[in-house]
């Protein structure tokens, strides 16, 4: 698995582009799917206790497996530290859930407070 570590600066706008592939390496068609990124202190926390949870249903290039998760300064106003995150692709009918990324999510302190 490639290095999927995400590093952000506290309070900054962030755009995270994700390319999702099938097991054979071909693009995963995201048409009709929801992509959800969840950030937690540890994996056994409830989703309701997540530091950050963001879902998108409109994708940059759905047939190419490319989506973008945009985070506002309010959403990234997180205590600096090292967290864990995952990204899941899901669909209600027929029921489908696949975790496609699991890695480190690091938040660093900002320097300029303009």
Describe the structure.
By secondary structure, the protein is mainly beta. It has a single domain (6-107), classed as Immunoglobulin-like (Sandwich), CATH 2.60.40. 0% of the residues lie in helices and 46% in strands. It is built from no helices and seven strands. It has strands spanning 6-9, 14-19, 34-40, 52-56, 66-71, 81-91, 96-108. The strands form two sheets. A five-stranded mixed beta sheet has the order 1-7-6-3-4, with no helix packed on it. A hairpin with a 4-residue loop joins β6 (81-91) and β7. It is globular and about 45 Å long. The N and C termini lie far apart (38 Å). The mean pLDDT is 94.
Secondary structure layout plus pairing:
Blueprint lengths: L5 E4 L4 E6 L14 E7 L11 E5 L9 E6 L9 E11 L4 E13 L6
Parallel strand pairs: 1-7
Antiparallel strand pairs: 2-5, 3-4, 3-6, 6-7
Radius of gyration: 15 Å
End-to-end span in angstroms? Answer: 38 Å
> Which class of secondary structure composition applies to the elements?
mainly beta
* Shape category: globular
Give the C-level CATH assignment. Mainly Beta
Instruction: Profile the largest sheet.
Output: 5 strands, mixed
Helix content: under 10%
Could you spell the SSE succession in H and E letters? EEEEEEE
Biggest sheet: strand arrangement:
1-7-6-3-4
Number of domains: 1
Q: Please indicate the percent range of residues in DSSP E strands (runs of 2 or more).
A: over 45%
* Mean pLDDT figure: 94
| CATH third-tier fold name | Immunoglobulin-like
Number of helices: 0
Poorly predicted sequence stretches spanning 5 or more consecutive residues: none
Instruction: Just name the CATH architecture.
Output: Sandwich
Let me know the number of strands: 7
């Amino acid at each position: 698995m490639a290095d999927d570590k995400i590093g952000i600066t506290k309070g900054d706008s962030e755009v995270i582009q994700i390319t999702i592939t099938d097991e054979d390496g071909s693009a995963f068609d995201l048409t009709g799917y929801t992509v959800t990124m969840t950030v937690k202190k540890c994996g056994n926390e409830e989703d309701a206790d997540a530091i950050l949870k963001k879902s998108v249903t409109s994708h940059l290039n759905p047939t190419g497996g490319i989506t973008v998760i945009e985070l506002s300064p309010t959403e990234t106003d997180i205590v600096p530290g090292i967290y864990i995150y995952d990204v899941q692709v899901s669909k209600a009918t027929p029921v489908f859930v696949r975790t496609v990324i699991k890695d480190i999510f690091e938040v660093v302190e900002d320097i300029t407070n303009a």
